[in-house]
Amino acid sequence: MLIDHEYIYKLLEDAQKASPEEIQRILDKAREAKGLTHLELAQLIQLEDKTAALREIFEIAGEIKRKIYGNRIVMFAPLYISNYCVNNCTYCGYRRDNEYTRRRLSQEEIQEEVKLIEKMGHKRLALEAGEDPVHCDIDYVLEAIETIYHTENEHGNIRRVNVNIAATTIENYRKLKEKNIGTYILFQETYHEPTYTQVHQKSIKNDYEYHLTSFDRAMEAGINDVGAGILLGLYDYKFELLSLILHNDHLEEKFGVGFHTVSVPRIRKAEGMTLKDFPHLVDDETFKEIVALIRLAIPFTGIILSTREPSEIRNEVIHYGVSQISAGSSVGVGGYKAQTEGIAKDQFQLEDHRTPLEILKSLMKDGFIPSYCTACYRQGRTGDRFMPLAKSGQIQNVCAPNALMTLLEFLLDYGDEEILKLGEEVIAREVHEIPRKETKQQLIHNLERIRGGERDLYF
């Protein structure tokens, strides 16, 4: 069994015996970005007196993040194209039993949404849709992807479409691959099989093994970038966190590469549900710990943080390992366009309502480089080609320059006077930090070309 429940329970039981010396050894190993064994992660999870250890865990997670990703934060936005759904997931606003007007966007409406998203500066989208084989079949999704890529915008097209749709067949994953998608994203929601069965009720989605093995089928179809996630609050986070790492290890052993990204959403209020129905909700302090432990356990995997989280939490956990965040998000179908009341329904409640400009200003004031880079995908640095570059540190030689070039594009095309001044200061500072002389010279040359009107330059 891919997720051996008894093995996880035994890990958590054995982990309670760790001595202070053993914990320190684990932390020293983690500091070297070597990852953690299942037992080592369980030992950190099971710490009773966490005060001192947590300070060091946060510190190490920040060190690893800076070592691998530098101070870059990749930006994206979700695009919901359909809220038709045949499933009855108890935590979701799109559940079948909720009665409201269902809709899917026409290709023209998708174009309108894309234009509005692009006006915020985004070049990377995450396509989202409910599961409905009739109203939202694979052909509709494929056409939507093509529409997104070919929508002409004032300052250029969308450059990468990640796709978050229901588990499907190898044949359908091949079709997605042929449409040049970026990362295929699918949340397991919960790895605890009894809870999975309980929260998904009578639904197509209520097939634990089929859902769990979706990434195997995707990789067999040639998709080598996959993004996982757990919905924190469905079951005990300790079990979920260990299961997530087991799943990643399974893919690494079978296909040579694990998760490209991991998302860490917490349950939020949605139509037709109340948070009181979920006894495993994760508080803020535990959430911070989870993010940091993921960074220690799988150092080279990206961590995605959405606008489900309030700005204060997002600003803090970015320091503990987050590498991608959404900005200016809408989680309703047609949500980027002013809608008649009752037409657009959000899938869940958002907490961070800042504009992309406000978020970028905050990031840069905190010492980060907002990045709109999509170069690795278009240069073929994905899957088992990306991870060796990341683990060797060579990826830094292209990621930092690409981040700065896309930041300058944003400043010139979408920025106001304040952010332009702030961003130019960031670029000047970061160019000085580029270690390779040849790279620095080419970057300076490219930045001047961008100021002269050229776009989409990358290493």
UniProtKB/TrEMBL annotation:
Keyword Hydrolase part of the UniProt annotation: no
CDD domains attached to this UniProt entry: Radical_SAM
Keyword Metal-binding: yes
Keywords attached to this entry: 4Fe-4S, Iron, Iron-sulfur, Metal-binding, S-adenosyl-L-methionine
SUPFAM superfamilies, alphabetized: Radical SAM enzymes
GO molecular function term, any single one: 4 iron, 4 sulfur cluster binding
GO biological process: sulfur compound biosynthetic process; water-soluble vitamin biosynthetic process
Cofactor(s) it depends on: [4Fe-4S] cluster
Radical SAM core domain location: 71-308
PROSITE patterns assigned: RADICAL_SAM
Stored InterPro entries: Aldolase_TIM, BATS_dom, FeFe-hyd_mat_HydG, rSAM, rSAM_sf, ThiH/NoCL/HydG-like
Protein name: Thiamine biosynthesis protein ThiH
Organism per entry: Desulfitobacterium metallireducens DSM 15288
